[in-house]
Amino acid sequence: MPEIKIPNLNNRSRQYLFKNKLSIKRKSKSKLLRESLLMVISAFILFLINYFIPQKKFLINSFIENFYKIYITFLDLFKYFYQILLVAFIFSSFFVAILLIIGALYRLYRISTRKTNKFKF
């Protein structure tokens, strides 16, 4: 039996892949001027905000120390999370062990109280 060739409809030609997807219009000079003025004003506002921040040198110098403290706190978080998981495992395993003991005792009780050779039809 000859093999049937099924055309792959998902394989589009690459030359038409991005056709009519991008607009290649140029921006007008007035729009470019407005955008550049907005960028300059935003930059000056950011410089002004940075100028009014007190104790910049102290903040920059304590930057590495703050990262170290964050790292230590993060490690403590994992330590406490491990302890919480361990306590949760202890409680859940204790609960499961009690259920297993109760189930075993109940089965032993049923075996000891079973009447011999009585079948109910």
What is the helix fraction of residues, given as a range? 55-70%
How much is the average pLDDT? 83
Helix count? 3
Count all strands and give the number: 0
Termini gap: 64 Å
Shape label? flat
H/E element order: HHH
What are the low-pLDDT stretches, counting only 5+ consecutive residues below 50? Answer: none
Q: Largest sheet at a glance?
A: none
Question: Structural class per helix/strand content?
Answer: mainly alpha
Q: Please state the CA-atom Rg, rounded to the nearest Å.
A: 38 Å
> What percentage of amino acids are in beta strands?
under 5%
What does this 3D model show about the protein?
By secondary structure, the protein is mainly α. Among the domains are: 28-55; 62-114. It is built from three helices and no strands. It is flat. It starts with 28 loop residues before the first helix and ends in a 9-residue tail after the last helix.
Fill in the keyword field for this structure.
121 residues; mainly alpha; 3 helices
